[in-house]
Write a structure and sequence with these properties.
Layout: E1 22-27, H1 36-45, E2 49-54, H2 56-59, H3 64-71, H4 84-89, E3 98-104, H5 106-113, H6 120-131, E4 135-139, E5 141-142, H7 143-146, H8 149-160, E6 164-165, E7 169-171, E8 174-176, H9 180-191, E9 201-206, E10 211-212, E11 218-219, H10 226-237, E12 241-246, E13 258-261, H11 265-278, E14 283-286, E15 293-295, E16 314-316, H12 320-327, E17 332-339, H13 344-357, E18 362-367, E19 379-386, E20 391-398, H14 399-428
Parallel strand pairs: 1-2, 1-3, 3-4, 4-6, 9-12, 9-14, 12-13, 14-17, 17-18
Antiparallel strand pairs: 5-8, 7-8, 10-11, 15-16, 18-19, 19-20
Helix pairs in contact: 1-3, 1-9, 5-8, 10-14, 11-12
């Protein structure tokens, strides 16, 4: 560290919002690397210390000397016996506050997604993932490369474990790096998010369940688990300790959460009840798309094809939420209610009926018939309703945004309930004379 470097005189000149934050700027071999000195300087102006880590390809585009001037700190261009990746982004008290990969090439994104760390930036990111450090990736490449289905799959894979992406901007046939002010604003947002769930234990159910008809056929629904995973990631980011009971969804659950994998509704019920009996949880969010019915008999073989008809008798399954209230009567309980092709009024009415019947504290209602909302979509539109009938509409937004807004309401209502319970206990205590 070069504490007296004159370049550091700009730290905090615009704002001290990132004062005390340590940002590792990983630079890869995109021509957008020429923006990195400015990105570093703007982050420093908001109070941050910035450390640059460069791939060999990046050093052919931007001089390491320029990045040392820009940041006032030594630049990592190769890993040595100093174990720079651990010093910068390991699991220790002086580690990075955030790792920013900007620009990120298709090559680097795919390497990170596959756990390959053969350059200084990818090795730093690998360490940061294991250490639970926030990571923001800013893609920059030709649009045709960005549209590669495997690259898009890798981006979604990284998003599913909590890594955030900024941009790109699509102009002139290119997936250009996001504007510098957009990058800085996103970094500030990540590093200043409330830690208002610190100390809370949260149990979340997510994904679909499967009810087998025979050895290979089952009844299920199109739920991907994206909403529940987004809630788990957002809860961890806000400081909560999270257990995720996860059905067979199509997204990867976040690695920083305790995962209990289940398949059927009864599996999920057993996992939830067992978790609640073993440990105290403050909040439960039941976002899983649970099957309500199961075949009365499962055939332990593959039913032959070619039958004129194949009749399956379905019987109802127990309600997980009802069991939760029996095992943990004081837990703050959030339910989800999915409807199909309902008006706003009908949707809210159905949700209010469920909140009363199941004794929920909050319910999140959505219409899965709407375009780009509900099952398997990356976005959603929901109504959050409390037991007093107060309705909050969250318009169509990415599920990460929806999750954050839901948690804003959960934390507010949880604290109100806690305060009410504390007042009730104090008023009920006998007066000793």
């Amino acid at each position: 560290m070069l504490d007296n470097h004159t370049s550091k005189q700009i730290i905090g000149t615009k704002s001290e919002v990132l004062k005390g934050k340590k940002i590792v700027l990983c630079i890869t071999g995109s021509v957008a690397a020429m923006e990195c000195p400015i990105i570093a300087r703007e982050l420093m102006r908001t109070g941050a210390e910035v450390y640059a880590v460069m791939s060999p390809a990046a050093t052919r585009l931007v001089s390491p000397d320029l990045m040392q001037w820009a940041t006032g700190n030594p630049v990592v261009t190769q890993l040595t016996g100093k174990v720079e990746h651990i010093s910068l982004a390991g699991d220790h008290p002086d580690t990075a506050s955030l790792v920013l990969v900007a620009p990120a090439t298709a090559n680097t994104i795919s390497k990170i997604a596959c756990g390959i760390d053969d350059t200084p930036p990818t090795t730093v990111v690998s360490s940061a993932i294991g250490a639970g450090i926030p990571i923001v990736i800013v893609p920059a490449m030709h649009e045709s490369m960005f549209r590669h289905p495997i690259v898009l799959e890798n981006i979604n894979r990284l998003k599913s474990i909590g890594i955030e992406f900024v941009g790109p901007r699509f102009e002139e046939g290119k997936a250009k790096i996001a504007h510098i002010d957009t990058i800085v604003a996103h970094v500030i947002d990540v590093l200043t998010r409330p830690k208002d769930m610190k100390g809370l234990k949260v149990l979340i159910t997510a994904g679909p369940t499967r009810e087998y008809i025979d050895a290979v056929r089952y009844i299920s629904n199109p739920s991907s688990g994206k909403m529940g995973v987004s809630l788990a990631i957002a809860s961890v980011q806000r400081g909560a300790e999270v257990t995720l009971v996860f059905g067979p969804g199509s997204v990867e659950p976040p690695p920083l959460t305790k995962i209990i994998n289940v398949e059927s509704t009864r599996d999920m019920l057993e996992a939830v009840v067992s978790s609640l009996r073993k440990e105290h949880y403050d909040i439960m969010i039941s976002s899983a798309a649970v099957s309500d019915y199961t075949p009365d008999k499962k055939i332990d073989a593959k039913t032959p094809s070619g039958k004129e008809e194949f009749i399956v008798r379905l019987v109802p399954l127990p309600k997980i939420i009802n069991a939760v209230r029996e095992v943990a009567p004081d837990i703050f309980l959030v339910g989800f209610k999915a409807e199909y092709n309902k008006s706003k009024e009908e949707l809210i009415s159905c949700a209010l009926n469920k909140i009363k019947k199941a004794n929920l504290d909050l319910i999140v209602a959505n219409d899965v018939s709407k375009e780009n909302a509900g099952f398997a979509a990356d976005s959603n539109e929901v109504y959050v309703i409390d037991k007093d009938g107060e309705v909050t509409h969250i318009p169509l937004s990415p599920k990460r945004v929806i999750a954050s807004r839901i948690l804003d309401i959960v934390v507010k209502k949880y604290n109100q309930k806690l305060l009410k319970m504390q007042r009730s206990i104090s008023h009920s205590e006998p007066v000793i004379k």
